[in-house]
Amino acid sequence: MPAYWLMKSEPDVFSFQVLKSRGKKGEAWDGVRNFQARNNMKAMQLGDLAFFYHSNEGKEVVGIMEVVKLAHPDPKDDTGTWKCVDMRAVEELPRPVTLVEIKDNPKLAKMVLVNNSRLSVQPVTAAEWAEVCRMAGTSGAAKKPAKKK
DNA sequence: GCCAACGTTGGC
DNA sequence: GCCAACGTTGGC
User: Fold this and answer.
1) Which of A54, A65, A71, A73 is 20 to 30 A from A43, alpha carbon to alpha carbon?
2) Tens digit of each residue's pLDDT (9 = 90 or more) over A38-65
3) pLDDT digits (tens, 9 = 90+) for A73-113
4) Which residues belong to any copy of the EVE domain (predicted)?
């Protein structure tokens, strides 16, 4: 069973659209300089899914992505302290879910996003994942491996 | 642009 | 090992 995460970025710096343009290979999620966030990335498994949240501009969950490479040394870090994972875009949400909507939903009151907005890589429970997907108008990439073309 | 909250650093 | 000071993040 895959775990769920939420990762955020300022769209000015790195947006979901940019990640999408990287295709299946994805892109290294580097630049994280926070121990909690790093530890969360270390815990990620291949195939784990994550929401892409745009901070500052937009303040909304805009897409779903997947872990395609396990935690490895951050190429932009000389000290060897920091790690990153590679992510690829899976699906752009039919309807972005804003921070306001998340805060308004009692089911999501315990989300880390609400309580610790500064953590850039955070875990999401299965229930929260399902709820945000429902609000976004998607079934959530994980639940439809049957859909082959 | 401001400010509150948090994490990290460094002096003791 | 504690805690004050500082820097950064991110919502408003």
Assistant:
1) A54
2) 999 999 999 999 999 999 999 999 999 9
3) 999 888 888 999 999 999 999 999 999 999 999 999 999 99
4) 3-135
**Full DSSP string of A18-40:** HHHHTGGG-EE------HHHHHH
Domain that holds residue A67: 4-140
Per the domain annotation, does A146 fall within a domain? no
The number of folded domains in chain A is 1
Give nucleotides in strand B with any atom < 7 A to a protein C-beta.
5-8
B9 C1' – A86 CA distance, angstroms? 30
Asked if A44 and A3 touch (Cβ cutoff 8 Å), the reply is yes
Strand partners, A53: A8, A61
Bases along strand C below 7 A from a protein CB: 8-12
